[in-house]
Amino acid sequence: MKKILTVLIAVFSISCVLGQSSVNGYKYVIVPKKFDFLKKENQYQVNALVKFLFEKYDFTAVYANELNADIEENSCLALKADVRDDSNMFTTKLKVELTNCRGEVVFLSEEGKSKEKDYKKAYHDALRKAFLSVEELGYRYDPSQAIVAPRRSVAAAPAATATPVLAAESKAPDNTPVPVARQTGTVSGEVLYAQPVENGYQLVDQSPKVVFVLQNTSVDNVFIIKDKNGMLTLKDGKWMAEYYENGERVLRELEIKF
Predict the structure, then answer these.
(1) Is pTM beyond 0.85 here?
(2) Is residue 124 within 8 Å of 49, Cβ to Cβ?
(3) Nearest-angstrom CA–CA distance, 232 and 254
(4) Which end of the chain is less congested by CB atoms within 10 angstroms, N or C?
(5) Within 13 A of 253's CA, how many CA atoms are on the CB side?
(6) Helix, strand or coil, per DSSP, at residue 55
(7) Cβ neighbours of residue 139 under 8 Å, at least 6 residues apart?
(8) What tens digit of pLDDT does each residue of 193-226 get?
(9) What own/partner pairs with CB < 8 Å and gap ≥ 24 does 106-111 have?
(10) CA–CA gap between residue 186 and residue 152 (Å, rounded)
(11) Domains located in the chain, CATH noted
């Protein structure tokens, strides 16, 4: 029994160290104006409290609609905050979650519970208890621990993914770059990651660099491509971007992770 207890304590300690190390590599926390379990923005002042509590424990917290230039330049500097609600009729149960720019969970708090009957009091009580796990992280931003995805060369993409349009261009000498972005036709590119921004999403590559900014429309699975005079639509299970570049019509098939 003592051996089992010793192992569990060791595993818990290692998990805490790893969690702290990974969280310290992020400079900001993005707090949404509305959580999914609420009906409207900042209902019961839950979102404001989450931002306040992160700041209390030395994080730099910003609202999702007030992103600074630092985050827009490199979105992977920030973690996205969320609150999981597992409440039932008698008990409010909340957990605080932090995910990175690739949608990977890097921290999940202990569950905060409250039996307060008033919604606002219950949410606030449960959140403060959940944030005790955040406090235990002892967060301090350390740029040396920053987690930045390695850059990938577009030229390194497998030739097998090229379409007939690009196959014709491949006859050029090896030292001649193929102007993929300006080709008219369907181009399958690398994986792009969708990150929520005000009125839509931004699509980033693994650099991370913002490739497209999408704006919502009144039609499901149809977006306006900002500054590209084009549209992104879901057709037969594939995301197709159609826009004009240097006077030429471009049609690209994109692989997007939402």
Answers:
(1) no
(2) yes
(3) 9
(4) N
(5) 11
(6) helix
(7) 20, 23, 24, 57, 58, 59
(8) 888 888 888 888 877 788 888 888 877 888 888 8
(9) 106/19, 106/22, 106/23, 106/26, 106/79, 107/19, 107/22, 107/23, 107/79, 107/134, 107/137, 108/84, 109/133, 109/134, 111/86
(10) 21
(11) 2-145 (3.40.50), 154-257 (no CATH)
Give the contacts of 254 (CB within 8 A, at least 6 positions apart). 189, 192, 203, 232, 239, 240, 241
Tokens, residue 210: 């913002």
State the Cα–Cα distance between residues 20 and 57, nearest whole angstrom: 13
44 vs 242 pLDDT, higher one: 44
Cβ contact 203:254 at 8 Å: yes
Contact (CB, 8 A) for 186 and 251: yes
Q: Pairing between strand 222-225 and 210-216?
A: antiparallel
CA angle 169, 170, 172 (to 5 degrees): 80
